[in-house]
Automatic annotation (TrEMBL):
It comes from Riccia sorocarpa. The keyword Repeat applies. Gene3D superfamilies: Tetratricopeptide repeat domain. It comes from the Eukaryota. This is Pentatricopeptide repeat-containing protein. Keywords: Repeat. Coiled coil: none annotated. Belongs to the PPR family. P subfamily.
Length: 543
């Protein structure tokens, strides 16, 4: 819309005339004019020029009539509108630039991720060196994220390959935290060789030794049973500036000595800690209590507990201390002593947790004191503790060992009604119990149940099923289950081959028996995996 000839007549885009008499409506119309852009026919003239002209002419009209007040206000509005438009244009340009930048980083991240997948499949160090000649400027965030994922998953070989790729980048700066995370993973997986190579790489990168990294390497040596190397590193730490052993270093080394049943060397280390004024904390004493319980040193357990109670506040017993002590007495069948410690726990004001109750249930179940076991389970519910999978598995195992089939099935029924998902340990216990009682129809029912669920069986579970079919004499189902095991992501172990061979021998199938024994011989003679690479199938009930 344009003001024409200084009159109260306005022309619209369609060429129609409109007369405006009210001043407020005029003001609103002028505001609408200022906020509209009139396209120019000329390609040279900007679309803003007619807009500026129309506002200036409108201001002249209002100044001649109202003393200039409304005109000034319109100019301020116009300036604000132009500034807003310019701001939007600048903002849009920034968004476009940022989008382009983010798109480039996204593509670089995808490319770096694809390179990490290639490195996972490499078998030789020469392949990584050849790759680094071409790919030495990959996106840092993508490589660090790939390394952290493999560390969390415990994939030793893949993590070490990605770390070599990371060290070969042009932008690489050594980070102590990355070495520390890798050393802790290698300690969990008991990888002595990789830990030694990593320590050499750390020295090449000229990173200063710290108490944390030295303790992590010491933990690798202890977990791998290299106590001589651990002691050598421990003595060397004392001569390195700002790297003197702390309470956690002593704790790790004492755990190694206790695992090797060298109690006298532990006593020497405790005396050395007192001389160096290194105070034992609760973590140190709890580690010692675990080892004392495993060795059956109950006199040392009571001595350590008294030291905790009479020591500093940071060494006072916590709930883990009580659970460790109760478990130590319960697993060897010293029920009365366990009950005394439980009463002492309540007298000292410590509140039990679900691990405490599960420890008591397991101890009573192993000693077939089922009335006390049920009382503890009911006490849990009265204290608003819900039964978890460990509670159910413990009770099912206890009833299964005692051949109390109805009670075992009742607990299993409650487990499913409560929405607690059965574990491979649960189904293995049921299969073993039914096979021992020659209830093979229920074994088949359990198998159908696991096939129709998302439970991922392990080799132990398959071996239980194979043994059940061997006892039933059903050779076809046995071969079917063994073939299913071979075609799965799992691998038969020595027990799997032994069960199949015994089944063939009992049926007089000599040729098949010889074939299985040949496979068993090959299995025994092949290079054994290290303990850390095997991803063991054993401990499925951790609490």
């Amino acid at each position: 819309m344009l003001c024409v000839n200084g009159r109260d007549e306005w022309i619209s885009g369609e060429g129609k005339w409109t007369v405006i008499e009210d001043d407020e409506i005029k003001m609103e119309s002028i505001r609408l004019i200022t906020l509209s852009k009139i396209p120019s026919k000329s390609s040279v003239v900007s679309s803003v020029r007619p807009r500026v002209w129309s506002v200036r002419r409108s201001v002249e009209i209002l100044q001649s009539r109202n003393g200039g007040k409304n005109g000034q206000r319109i100019m301020r509005r116009f300036a604000a509108s132009v500034a807003a438009d310019n701001s939007e244009d600048e903002k849009g340009g920034w968004y476009r630039a940022q989008s382009k930048k983010d798109g480039g980083r996204w593509r670089a991240g995808r490319y770096a991720t694809s390179i990490t997948f290639q490195v996972d499949s490499f078998k030789l160090d020469q392949d990584i060196e050849k790759l680094l000649r071409k790919e030495s400027r990959l996106l840092p965030e993508a490589l660090v994220d790939a390394l952290n994922k493999r560390i969390r998953a415990g994939e030793v070989e893949k993590a070490m390959k990605i770390f070599e790729l990371l060290r070969g980048q042009e932008w690489y700066v050594p980070q102590p935290a990355q070495y520390l995370s890798l050393l802790r993973m290698l300690a969990e997986r008991k990888q002595f060789v990789h830990a030694s190579k990593l320590w050499t790489a750390m020295e090449k990168d000229k990173l200063p030794h710290s108490v944390e990294t030295c303790t992590a390497l010491l933990n690798v040596y202890v977990k791998c049973g290299r106590l001589d190397a651990a002691c050598e590193l421990f003595e060397r730490m004392k001569s390195i500036p700002d790297c003197s052993p702390d309470v956690y270093t002593y704790t790790v080394l004492m755990e190694g000595f206790l695992h090797a049943n060298e109690v006298t060397r532990v006593s020497k280390l405790l005396d050395e800690m007192r001389q160096n004024k290194i105070h034992q904390n609760t973590v140190t004493w709890n580690s010692l209590l675990v080892s004392f319980g495993r060795l059956g040193k109950f006199d040392l357990i009571e001595e350590a507990f008294n030291n905790m109670c009479g020591g500093r506040p940071d060494s006072y017993p916590d709930i883990y201390t009580w659970n460790i002590t109760l478990k130590s007495y319960g697993k060897v069948g010293r029920i009365r002593k366990m009950e005394e410690w439980y009463v002492k726990m309540q007298e000292m004001g410590a509140s039990p947790d679900i691990v405490t109750f599960n420890t008591l249930i397991r101890a009573y179940g192993r000693n077939q004191e089922f009335k006390k076991m049920r009382n503890v389970a009911q006490n849990m519910l009265s204290l608003y503790f819900q039964w978890d999978e460990v509670t159910f598995n413990t009770m099912i195992e206890a009833y299964g060992r005692a051949r109390m089939i109805e009670d075992m099935e009742e607990v299993y029924r409650i487990m499913k009604c409560k929405g607690v998902k059965p574990t491979p340990f649960t189904l293995t216990t049921l299969i073993n119990t039914y096979a021992r009682e020659k209830m093979f129809d229920k074994v088949e029912k359990i198998r159908r149940e696991w096939m129709n669920s998302d439970i991922r069986p392990d080799v132990i579970m398959y071996n239980s099923l194979l043994e059940a079919y061997r006892r039933s004499g059903n050779l076809s189902l046995l071969e079917e289950a063994f073939s299913e095991l071979e075609n799965s992501e799992l691998e038969p172990n020595e027990n799997s081959y032994v069960i199949l061979a015994n089944a063939y021998r009992s049926h007089g199938l000599r040729e098949k028996y010889n074939e299985v024994m040949a496979k068993l011989s090959q299995f025994r003679n092949r290079p054994k995996q290290s303990k850390n690479e095997g991803f063991g199938l054993g401990k499925r009930m951790s609490k």
